[in-house]
Design brief:
Elements lengths: L1 E6 L12 E2 L3 H10 L4 E6 L7 H8 L3 E5 L6 H14 L4 E5 L1 H5 L11 E3 L4 H13 L9 E5 L2 E4 L28 E2 L5 E4 L2 E2 L10 H4 L5 E2 L2 H8 L6 E4 L8 H13 L5 E5 L2 H6 L1 H10 L1 E9 L3 H6 L6 H13 L5 E6 L5 H14 L5 E4 L7 H6 L24 H15 L2 H17 L7 H12 L2 H14 L10
Parallel strand pairs: 1-3, 1-4, 4-5, 5-6, 10-13, 13-14, 14-15, 15-16, 16-17
Antiparallel strand pairs: 2-9, 6-7, 7-8, 11-12
Helix pairs in contact: 1-5, 7-8, 8-10, 13-15, 15-18, 16-17
């Protein structure tokens, strides 16, 4: 059978989504599980926003799978499903990812036939085999089926016990796109998953719920064997905490050195993990570690405890010292609470200045569907428009008037990334490309433009007017 996998386009509002555009690894993994028995194609609408109709005409898929991992993808996923059904009503359409798995009711729509809940490799394969043989999809665990009488769950599918048994992601499906994938100013970059799940229970995060509170690891040998197949000079490890297992992280670094694999690496890690084993950072620095993303979240311990982070401000600062001692300037992220007043913003600015942080990032506390925070605060939401659930716009009541809140938020970005610095970066990349003998993607224009936009309070307010029309994309999809 012919299966088309679709990555939705990004919205045009201000947001962290414009600071990175990494490969659609989830879809590549689904493709890897299917391509030995089926003809699979992948369409990344972020890079080919107008190509859906032509792809449907040329490829003529029997099934289309749409990724909707992020809450902000929901309306575009629904719109894509509508367009597919208008093109050919008999094409089977399914969606998957974090949001539909944790909130399948948002996809109760005639244009969508099924929601793949949780890990999709085995479920998608079994679902497609069932469709090919004409059996009842109700016998395939891990699905929510949209029936005329309502949604029907087929029951929970057991998680994959041994992640090493998974096929490699089908990166060949994105061959024509790969030079356009970037993480901030690092391009080209590939993504690699080495583990699934998180043992912690942060109130603002849905990862641990998606993976049912379990952590499973790929073996160090499997990780390095897959790494050897990647051509890009930079690699982002997508694990939520790459240092969950210290001995495994050590072994991966040892094997990288043994195999003489020369790349630049980016990881996400908890500060307490770095503090417990600072030698890990030193070891990884020797094999190419260049970027460490750490969720500092808050400058105050009481605020950090309220997020159920199970970490400390002291650990954050010690991890900063460890990274710097090894020649790495980490990228700490902070959560701005809608209840902040002017003094709270001043405290955060002073904290960043005191630590001399060069690459901080700021998100707004957002009750994303599937999180404990959403369960507790959904009655307080000021909007239910998912386009605004991008952790940049406030969807909870703010203590300050909204214009003042956004002015304070913008000031955090302006102080961390002054306009003169962004202009110098613009000149550097412009001259680099001007005198380069090779054609280079102009991803840096999007990143630096977003940097200017983050520092402009009016941009956040203007987005409200733009985004209010975006929900209309899903209105044709009348619920069953």
């Amino acid at each position: 059978m012919r299966i088309l996998l679709v990555q939705p386009n990004q919205n045009q509002a201000i947001g962290l989504q414009h600071l990175s555009q990494v490969e659609p690894l989830g879809l590549e993994m689904i493709g890897g599980a299917l391509q030995d028995q089926h003809e699979v194609a992948l369409l990344d609408l972020r890079l080919q926003p107008d190509a859906l109709a032509d792809t449907l005409t040329d490829f003529r898929p029997h099934l289309v799978g749409i990724s909707s991992t992020f809450t902000t993808d929901v309306y575009r996923a629904l719109s894509i499903a509508e367009e597919i059904k208008e093109f050919h009503p008999h094409t089977f359409v399914f969606v998957g990812g974090h949001h539909p798995s944790l909130r399948p009711s948002d996809f109760r729509c005639p244009a969508i036939d099924a929601i793949v809940v949780g890990e999709g490799e085995a479920t998608a394969r079994e679902m497609i085999d069932c469709l090919a043989t004409g059996c009842d999809l109700g016998s395939v665990p891990g699905l929510v089926l949209n029936r005329p009488e309502g949604q029907q769950s087929t029951g929970e599918r057991p998680q994959i016990k041994n992640l090493d048994t998974l096929p490699y992601p089908a990166r060949s499906l994105t061959r024509s796109y790969r030079q356009h994938y970037y993480l901030v100013l690092d391009n080209p970059i590939a993504s690699l998953e080495t583990a699934r799940g998180c043992p912690y229970r942060c109130r603002f995060c849905s990862v641990w719920r998606f993976y049912r509170g379990r952590v499973r690891l790929k073996s160090s040998k499997r990780v390095v064997e897959e790494l050897k197949t990647i051509e890009e000079p930079s690699v982002l490890f997508t694990d939520d905490n790459f240092l969950t297992d210290f001995s495994r992280a050590e072994e991966i670094a040892r094997l990288i050195q043994k195999e003489n694999i020369r790349k630049r690496y980016s990881i996400q890690a908890r500060s307490d993990a770095i503090v417990r084993h600072p030698e890990i950072i030193a070891q990884w620095r020797k094999v190419g570690l260049e970027a460490v993303l750490i969720g500092f979240e808050k400058p105050d311990q009481k605020e950090l405890d309220a997020l159920n982070k199970h970490n400390s401000v002291e650990n954050n600062e010690r991890a900063l010292e460890v990274c710097r001692a090894n020649g790495i300037e980490p990228s700490p992220s902070f959560i701005v609470d809608p209840s902040y007043d002017h003094s709270d913003f001043a405290t955060l600015r002073a904290y960043i200045r005191r630590l001399k942080l060069k690459h901080p990032a700021f998100t707004v506390l957002t009750p994303l569907p599937g999180t404990v925070l959403f369960d507790e605060m959904q009655g307080l939401l000021t909007t239910t428009n998912y386009e605004l659930f991008d952790v940049v716009h406030a969807v909870l009541p703010t203590r300050l008037p909204l214009p003042e809140f956004y002015d304070e938020l913008a000031s955090l970005w302006r102080e961390a990334y002054p306009r003169w610095g962004l202009r110098l970066s613009w000149i550097y990349f412009f001259l680099r490309d001007l005198f380069s003998q090779k054609s280079k993607p102009d991803y840096w224009k999007k990143v630096l433009t977003e940097g200017f936009r983050f520092g402009n309070a009016r941009t956040y307010l203007k987005d409200w007017a733009y985004i209010q029309t975006a929900k209309g994309m899903a209105q044709k999809c009348v619920q069953i």
